[in-house]
Amino acid sequence: MLTNLGIVVRAGDQDDPAVRVSSERLERLDARVAKINDLTADFIERKYTTLLKKPLVSSGRIRVRGDIARWDTIKPYKTVMLVGRGEVRIYYPDRRVEEVFQLGERLGQLAMSPLPRLAALREHFDMTPIPPNEIDTNASERHHLALRLRPKAQSLREHVNEIRVLIDETTACVVKIAMDDPTGDRTVIEFSHVKTNTGLEDRDVSLTVPPGTKTTRPLETFGGSQDALEEAETP
Q1: Could you give the 3-state DSSP secondary structure of residue 3?
Q2: pLDDT tens, residue by residue, 15-52
Q3: Residue 30 and residue 173: Cα distance in Å, rounded?
Q4: Which of 214, 203, 225, 229 is nearest to 90 (CA)?
Q5: What is the chain's percent helix, strand, coil content, to nearest 5?
Q6: Which contiguous run of DSSP H or E holds residue 124?
Q7: Global confidence as pTM
Q8: What local confidence, expressed as pLDDT, does residue 24 receive?
């Protein structure tokens, strides 16, 4: 669950009224998001793959405070994913395993969250406004803003073709994300029961794994780094 919105106006598009209006709406939304200190929401994620007839469905709850997001998946299996400050940590309690992925500070800002920020995505994506009902048939032009995000850098295009996001302007939060990857697979995440500024504390978005948990760094191991071959175990 990796993706946070802005619009990059391409050359020749600045005179387009639709683009200009969307850009103004995004600036207003970004100002509102800046005033949100924390967020909680339920989520449902569906992964569509060419190998399976039915999507893989998982659900749980997300909590966001500042630049840290904690995803607690409840069904079908319990996992905890902590995203922020340039890394992703995923804990599998049944296996007593923790995986750590280094993203870097910039890519870490793109981790998926119901709270979009304008500056980070302006740097990494070209975006265009699309009809809200292209993402959700129940969405309306009056209450929602929808965007198509296409990665600028080849390094991102290797992982995602495009991302479509639906923003509820009453809350200034993303309520639906649809991401297509180069293999033809698609991931759709829907957020519901969104609440903001409820007073979350640092402990609500932290992750402390129990003693005996094995910690691995899969991406570094795949890259063949000698240091990455080491597996640490929590004392």
Answers
A1: coil
A2: 444 444 567 878 888 888 889 999 999 999 999 998 89
A3: 10
A4: 214
A5: 20, 40, 40
A6: helix 118-124
A7: 0.79
A8: 80
The rounded distance, in Å, linking the Cα atoms of 160 and 150 is 8
d(C-alpha 126, C-alpha 182), whole Å: 17
Dihedral sign (CA 171, 103, 2, 135): positive
CB burial of residue 219 (10 Å; 0-12, 13-18, 19+): middle
The class (CATH top level) of 17-233 is mainly beta
Q: Is the torsion defined by CA of 214, 219, 222, 226 positive or negative?
A: negative
Q: Give the residue carrying structure tokens 């079908």.
A: 76
According to the model, what pLDDT value does residue 221 have? 54
Q: How far apart are CA 2 and CA 71, in angstroms?
A: 11
Does position 111 have pLDDT exceeding 70, yes or no? Answer: no
Task: Give the dihedral of Cα atoms 167, 173, 178, 179; nearest 10 deg.
Answer: 120
d(CA 192, CA 93): 25
Q: What are phi and psi of 23, to 5 degrees?
A: -65, -40
- Under DSSP, the state recorded for 23 is H
Rounded-to-integer distance, Cα 137 and Cα 174, Å: 16
Whether 184 and 175 have beta carbons less than 8 Å apart is answered as: no
Token pair of 41, please?
């929401």
